Amino acid sequence: MLSSTSTEGFVRWFRDSSPYIHAHRGKTFVVSFGGEAVADSGFPNAIHDFAMLNGLGVRLVLVHGIRPQIDARLRFHGIEARYHQGLRITDETALECVKEAAGTVRVEIEALLSQGLANSPMSGVRIRVASGNFVAAKPVGVRNGVDFQHTGEVRRIDVDGIRGALDRGDIVLLSAIGYSPTGEVFNLSAEQVATAAAIALRADKLVLLTEQDCNNGSDGKLIRQLTTGEAEALLKDEGALTSEELIPHLKAAVRACREGVQRAHLINRRIDGAVLLELFTRDGIGTLISRTPFETMRPAQVQDVTGVLDLIAPLEQAGILVPRSRERLETDIGDFVVIERDGLIIGCAALHVFKEERMGELACLALHNDYRGGKRGERLLEYLEAKARTLHAERLFVLTTQTSHWFRERGFEPATTDDLPKARRASYNAQRGSKVLIKPLKHPQG
Ligand SMILES: CC(C)(COP(=O)(O)OP(=O)(O)OC[C@H]1O[C@@H](n2cnc3c(N)ncnc32)[C@H](O)[C@@H]1OP(=O)(O)O)[C@@H](O)C(=O)NCCC(=O)NCCS
Prior knowledge:
Belongs to the acetyltransferase family. ArgA subfamily. Pathway: Amino-acid biosynthesis; L-arginine biosynthesis; N(2)-acetyl-L-ornithine from L-glutamate: step 1/4. This protein is α/β, with parallel strands linked by helices. The protein folds into 2 domains: about 5-295, Carbamate kinase (3-Layer(aba) Sandwich), CATH 3.40.1160; about 295-440, 3-Layer(aba) Sandwich (Aminopeptidase). It contains 15 helices and 23 strands. The protein binds coenzyme A. Coenzyme A binds near residues 321, 373, 374, 398 and 405.
């Protein structure tokens, strides 16, 4: 039986994950991992995590590599693997090994996704896996006089085919091989297939599982987030990363983000539960790459209603904010500004304008508990003050029970309900006894 502390811990943990569950539902994630991950004893755990993502409504495309499995087969035949500029040369014998390795690994993954034994994490789960000829390829050809033979490049992704399978709730499994209209098979790299698939599907996330953390070469510390511009600068700088292995991953992430994928994540697959930790905890455990900055402040949209409700629910329960129904929030959402961090709403505030009295009400100012003290509250206030000025408001007021000093320190003065606009006075809740504070808004001269 759980002790009361662990019960509380569990409930808190589950509630903390709920915004991420809402945020990820219905989104398309392409996840790639090397053949090393498949050979690892911890791989069944990763499969359970993928199954759970599928269960939570994530549209999931898995892309697996087969490099170590190909090398093992070549060794078995006494043949040395041949590479030129980091790219495998796939001759006839190597191609046989590629086909064998792709077939075997694919079957192993499908078998793991088919588990459903009682007492296992996948008990009662029925997952359909769709795999097939979704990737068209063309030969790399001859470069610098070297014929790469059956090593290929992605030519096209069968977007309709993959979307159809995802619409049915299937997990799509792609191998690092492709087929040409001439009926040939080509050996591809897993990250190339994953990047091309993520771009073609306009995926929300490209998740690249790596063999190690993406650490900064100068201080050895994990790089938590990068814009594509910052990532490109790192790629130009030799020694900026602790390992060369990360370079193709980072390049893939940059390319995907530049071509429309919302976010790319580099995650060390050796950490148990790595994908869950990255996707369902506040700051994750990997490196996030995005085209726009990780955190933005912007006017709210109807799609933000759920995120705002999740954010303010604990403050409403604590009596700090007045409860708002979903319907009311949907009606008022145009008055809101939000701070979005990696797809999550972590801050919000609203401005309601009373034209006749030339006054604005600052309402529903809230920051997620984990992000307080970073001047975000102040930035929301400044943003709405500027907006109020453009809407010709001359004074800004706020009704507050527990935060009056925060406002006093930012230029608000105590006032009374008589100073409120007529309509607001009528709806003032005397029982709540909120303090009224008003700030005059300076307008530029002239
Ligand atoms: C008030 C709030 C929006 C401030 O956001 P924030 O991003 O942390 O704000 P800033 O970083 O700009 O300011 C932080 C400062 O405000 C202080 N502060 C926070 N809450 C305060 C309160 N209720 N009363 C007085 N000061 C407060 C902090 O102690 C900190 O001061 P310090 O740096 O001197 O220690 C945030 O704390 C919050 O969401 N609170 C709960 C909701 C709320 O009270 N909303 C207002 C409803 S009217």
